[in-house]
Structure formats: structure tokens, C-alpha cells
User: Fold these one by one.
Assistant:
Number 1:
Amino acid sequence: MHYSFGSVIILFLANLIRIYYWLILARVILSWVIRDPENKLFAFLLDITEPVLAPIRKILPSMGLDFSPIIAFFLLRLLSRLLLSFI
């Protein structure tokens, strides 16, 4: 299978989105176990995922639970499918 340069870029971006999806999932799971912001892994996950989750959190009404990861999963999946539709 031969990919054009544009297809390679799209596949690269889709894979980055997939990795980011897993980083958010790891943050969610670790937030149940590790609540220490001094933990390097947890701090890294907070730093890397907060730029996407914070704007979503601002839009969502306060409901006691943080639903921003669920919305982020949906949006990332949608973006990935949209990108892959161009191949």
C-alpha cells in the first residue's frame, strides 16, 4: 500500500490523537489512585491533558463530577475519524 505525503501526515496526526486519548484515560484512572500533584507521572498527565480538558470544563455546567474527559474522548474520536476520512 502506497501512501502520499498528505496521507502520511494524516495518519501521523490520527496516531497522535490516539496517544492523547490514552493519556487522558491514564489521567482519569490515576486520579482515582494518585491524588498527589507532586507525583511526577500524575503531574505530567495533568500538564499534558489540561490544555484540552480545561476549556471543555469551562463550557460544561458544574455537576459535581468532571465529565470533561468523556466529552474530550468523543471530540478526539470525531476528529480522528474526520481526519482518516480524507485518506
Number 2:
Amino acid sequence: MFVPHATAGVVIVEIGAGSDDDLLAALDRLLPRDERVYRHSHGSAGHGADHVLPLLVPPSLTVPVRGGHLGLGTWQSICLLDPNPDNATRTVSLGFLAG
């Protein structure tokens, strides 16, 4: 799975029960959305932080498929993470390898 965007990544995370909010709060602490911190500062507030996101959230991941189903754990979900509000449309590319 690959997201060809400079401000987006894909993660495997538990969602619901507050976990998704905790993830976003942690990102805000690690990558503050204060424009004075970043040299890359065009676009909406925090856009510089959006471009640093791939250091923490990669644009790709690999998940095994077993018996036609994703090999995820009980509480795991695949999520597209892109805090950049400037682009509403995103592309996710999927590739499959037979093994």
C-alpha cells in the first residue's frame, strides 16, 4: 500500500475508544502546528508540520493477505493519515504479490 503524497502516510492503529484522538494529540505534541517553527510555511496553518509527518508516518506499508483477508490483529485498522486540509483528494495505490 502506498500513498503518493508529501503530507500523507498510512498507519496500522486501533481506532475508536479514543485511540484515534490520542494519535492526533500525540502528533500535535511531536509536530506543533506553529508556523514559526518551520521554514516550509505556505498553505494552511501547520503546513510545515504536514511535510515533516513522513518522518513518523511512512507513505507505505505491507500487510499479509491470508485466505483472502487482511492479516491484521483484532483491534488493528489501516488508516490514511493526512492532517493537511489543503487537499481533499488523496490516492492510495495497492499492489499484491503472490506467494
